Amino acid sequence: MPFDASPRTRLTDRPSVLPLRLDAVALEAGRHTLIDSLNLELDRGPRTIIIGPNGAGKSLTLRLMHGLIKPTRGAVTWAGAAPGRRRRMRQAMVFQQPVLLRRSVAANVRYVLRVHGVARAERAARVADALERAGLAHLARRSARVLSGGEQQRLAIARAHAIQPEVLFLDEPTSNLDPAAALAVERMIDEIHAAGTKIVMTTHDMGQARRLADEIVFMHRGRLIERTPAAAFFADPQTQAARDFVAGQLLV
Amino acid sequence: MDNFGAAFETAFALILQLDSELVEIVALSLQVSLLAVACSALIGLPAGAVLAVVRFPGRQGVIVLLNALMGLPPVVAGLVIYLLLSRAGPLGEYGLLFTPTAMVIAQTVLVTPIVAALTRQTIEDLHSEYDEQLRSLGVRRTQSIWTLLWDGRYSLFTGLLAGFGRAIAEVGAVIIVGGNINHVTRVMTTTIALETSKGNLELALALGIILISLAILVNAAVMSLRGVTARANW
Amino acid sequence: MASRLFRRLTFIAALAFAALGAIAAGPAQAQDGNFIIVQSTTSTEASGLFEHLLPKFENMTDIDVRVVAVGTGQAIRNARNGDGDVLFVHHTPSEFQFVAEGFGVRRFDVMYNDFIIVGPKDDPASISGMEDVTAALTRIGESEAAFASRGDDSGTNKKELGLWAKTDVNPRAASGSWYRETGAGMGATLNTAVSMGAYTMSDRATWLNFQNKGDFEILVEGDRRLFNQYGVILVNPEKYPHVKKQKGQAFIDWLVSAAGQAAIADYRIKGQQAFFPNAR
């Protein structure tokens, strides 16, 4: 099977769940406002990288988009429809700390294929394909939990990609990895994007943002400060906060 | 002490001769306790997992009750089962009192809270780790419970072993509902109680040694299932 | 992959097998087998009498006799609940009451043995050789020498309390000091008495068969008031229709027959006759 043919044909087969819209989305915990009236529309195509200092609300925003948490106000819609299990199954998410099942490497991928109703006969080939792309084929029978950090994150990404999601959310996927392992992860993300999947990712690594981003969403204190094409953002941020952040100054 | 030396000699002699009465008693002990653990697993594993994953009003109360029931005195359990199974009791018509089935029921009552409580703890820890990932994948609630049970299986074995330990060692419940009838409901612990009451301390101690050895064997057998010990702590 | 599948299958199979076993084991045991349940006392079991007696009856009739050996009080309570076909105990007044209240059909005398008072060889209350049991108990009470009582509402316990009632001593008032209630069977109480150096009252058969005597010996015996009568009663089938009337009655009939009485007389513990048949 050619590397990128399958996901593309599959994606165009079904009506898209994109665009994703956030309308005045807010998240409050007690008297604290964690996310403050966020308006954002994401469509197919560019790799969207969310950056901002710690506590800006980047991870919460991903979780709100993916439907893992519900906003206290505002609405998240997928192609005009309310979020739900069926629409969430067209998306995938990779966490900062990969959550791998206590099973073999291959069984981790097999599990998500089963959950997604992939026919038993088709699974073995899809598992082999996913592990091949992640460079994990030789570890297929190894327990997933004893892999190195980089291998674990590559498996998590391969597993997420195996279900051919239309959107892939990644929450600081390389923050616990050494530079070489991080680079391998970035390469996988690039390939998945090239195969037609929308990428939405958070990072606090400016180098990574420069390498991967097509557009930047800059957040600060739970607010969206600016959304700019990547080249323009790094050349000349529109806001003072973003300028300080890019210059490496501490934002509080 | 002479008693201990003599008891070990008696124990070895009994084992070497494969004394037919001893074999019968040991077989019944294992049969009753293993069945009780199996029944407890069928009830306690799903119940503990549901308790770990599903939030409902009164959940905290159920957990407290479950933890308290782990300390339920066997005699009390035996008495309650006796009253239920007695001919004068609500389940009397089935004639289960003084049968091995009654002993299995009593031990199941004793073991199920242990299995359920330890399952609840194990699965709750695992659930906090897996929850977001499983929801992200679109795994339904019932399916996620099976996933958690399967992934927690090595730790859950430890809970089942703890339950088996309680079952095989208890005497208070089985002597009431079983009646310690020779060749019918006489197990290791009730035999030990009987021999002690006959002043046969040496034989009683020898049986105790055999009982402990059996418990060690069963534990070793389960632990040797590929890597249970190593994986329980993942 | 094969090994993983295999492990999963064995795991599930083990569970299923065990569950099936539990279900299958139940009814098989519960049905009307060819057996009767006899509610009896620890003294008959611990003395070894049943091991001697039952095979003879079982060989002759093919009826399996299942003995539940507990204190007389508990045996009567179990029988009152219908949990047994035959009651075989040793406290005549309670037995007559059991019949009078309609729980039993008719009471038969079977045999007797006797109670004895045992104690440490050094005999702190100096009761050795006394023939009057109430005098001996009085001396124990007055010297406040340790005495272990069953305290479990058993036939032996009822008998012992009846004897104390004929003295001026009120042992219950001294409970916890020199009068110690073990709340346990005869054997357990003997174990306790031996390790505390306390006097106690036992039936002769249990004492003869007891293995942990230490320096204890029989100090008082032979008083007619220490006489210990055993009776047997069929649980009333009109009250509990499940009672195996014919099989239970067959056991009773055999016990009081010439053959059964001879079998009882035959039983020896260390060369001594333990029970004396006296069916009429």
Automatic annotation (TrEMBL), chain A:
Q: Which InterPro entries match?
A: AAA+_ATPase, ABC_SmlMolc_Importer, ABC_transporter-like_ATP-bd, P-loop_NTPase
What are the GO MF terms of this UniProt record? ATP binding; ATP hydrolysis activity
Q: Highest taxon of the source?
A: Bacteria
- Give the taxonomic lineage as stored in the record: Bacteria, Pseudomonadati, Pseudomonadota, Alphaproteobacteria, Rhodospirillales
Task: Cite the ABC transporter domain residue spans from the record.
Answer: 20-246
Query: From what organism does this protein derive?
Result: Ferruginivarius sediminum
Q: SMART domains of this UniProt entry?
A: AAA
Cross-referenced Gene3D superfamilies: P-loop containing nucleotide triphosphate hydrolases
Report what the protein is called: ATP-binding cassette domain-containing protein
Q: SUPFAM superfamilies from the entry?
A: P-loop containing nucleoside triphosphate hydrolases (SSF52540)
What keywords is this UniProt entry annotated with? ATP-binding, Nucleotide-binding, Transport
Cite the Pfam families for this sequence.
ABC_tran (PF00005)
Automatic annotation (TrEMBL), chain B:
Identification of the protein by name: ABC transporter permease subunit
What protein family is recorded?
Answer: Belongs to the binding-protein-dependent transport system permease family.
Superkingdom of the source?
Bacteria
Q: Does the UniProt entry include the keyword Membrane?
A: yes
Q: Which residues form the ABC transmembrane type-1 domain?
A: 26-222
Q: What PANTHER family does the entry give?
A: PERMEASE COMPONENT OF TUNGSTATE ABC TRANSPORTER
* Segments crossing the lipid bilayer: 32-54, 61-85, 97-118, 156-181, 201-222
UniProt keywords, alphabetically:
Membrane, Transmembrane, Transmembrane helix, Transport
* Stored Pfam families: BPD_transp_1
Task: Please list the coiled coil stretches.
Answer: none
Q: What is the originating organism of this protein?
A: Ferruginivarius sediminum
UniProtKB/TrEMBL annotation, chain C:
- The secretion signal range is 1-24
Q: Which Pfam families does the record cross-reference, listed alphabetically?
A: PBP_like_2
- Swiss-Prot/TrEMBL keywords: Signal
Q: Which SUPFAM superfamilies did the record assign?
A: Periplasmic binding protein-like II
Which InterPro entries does the entry link to?
ABC-Tungstate_binding, PBP_domain
Every PBP domain range: 36-258
- Output the PANTHER family linked to this UniProt entry: EXTRACELLULAR TUNGSTATE BINDING PROTEIN (PTHR37945)
Please give the name of this protein: Sulfate transporter
Q: Which organism is it from?
A: Ferruginivarius sediminum
